[in-house]
Amino acid sequence: MPTVSKATFNNKNSFFFDALKKKIDHYFSENKIKQSGNLKLYYKAIILVTTLVALYVVLVFFTPQNDYISLALCFLLGINFAAIGFNLMHDGGHGSFSSKPWVNKMMAHSLELMGGSSFMWNLKHNQNHHTFTNIEGMDDDIDIKPFIRVSQDQPKKWYHRFQHIYSSFLYALTYILWVFWLDYRKYFSGKIGEIKIKKMSLKDQIIFWGSKVIYLILFLVIPILKVGLWDTLIGYTLAAMVTGFVISVVFQLAHIVEGAYFPEITEDTPLLKIETEWAIHQLRSTANFATKNKFVSWFIGGLNYQVEHHLFPKVCHIHYPKINKIVQETCKEHNITYLEFPTVFSAYKSHLTHLKQVGRAA
Ligand SMILES: [Zn+2]
Prior knowledge:
By secondary structure, this protein is mainly alpha-helical. It has one domain. It is 62% helix and 5% strand. The chain has 15 helices and 6 strands. The strands form 3 sheets. The chain has a two-stranded parallel sheet. A two-stranded antiparallel sheet has the order 2-3. A two-stranded parallel ribbon has the order 5-6. β2 (191-192) and β3 (195-196) form a beta hairpin. α2 (39-61) runs antiparallel to α3. The longest helix has 28 residues, at 67-94. It binds zinc ion. Zinc ion binds at residues 90, 94, 125, 130, 309, 313.
């Protein structure tokens, strides 16, 4: 199968993004608001960190006698992890959580607390995924090979015809794979997808290895010493599966749905030339969902406004509902498709339909 080693956009005439950016800048300057987070976000961060610490302390040091209560708390711990990822780590990683760089750095490093590597994530997410969305070989987020085929340019296996049935079970394993395998694969291969990783400094190396060890001590060694091996393994696996499922689904609903664009890759296109400007490519390969649902928006850190996030990743998610209207209006003016699903359920259904189609296509 051919893969792309370089992709370019037709940014010489970025008429759409120029017009949109002007309006967005005007919105912020007219209302005299910063593009970074505000008090609402800081309160959310305090709530999420406090609940995480409370859940951990209760589960490890004051373990409930009733196993069902413990399991329910582990379930909540998994949800809490995902929420910290969406709200603190993701915005911090994009530099949009606060106007102070050190606060963003601290938030981005919450990923280390969850067993990941912000060094790897930064390359995978900010460079690969945000620039080369849905481009095979360049966007590591669509690489779930060989288990799931998300576009027709990926190799087909016989079992892909059932992928719409088994995918949801696999999603639950993504976080465990991420923490215990994928970061190491990137580290030792020196590559993310087809793209080479920049050299790690000594500080990067210390953070990478140090945080992996601290994570193991915090979430496996101490719990094993306090509550025993099997209880820890069951509780940890449940929490990790909930986190994995939630983060995978949020990603999938934003890019792997019916109508989302995957550029066609042919034998002679190691260099892929995308005909449109970058911003239009983002609009074609990204979808919003459940934007009217306030709880969803709160919990997943505005990632249901994925279109706005991809166009303005440096704007904090707290502002997406407002700028959503400007984006929609500008798309209409320029006759550009804007993908949106009204509910989480409809987006999930569309995701499964897409997987079913691709799993059976030649
Ligand atoms: Zn992002």
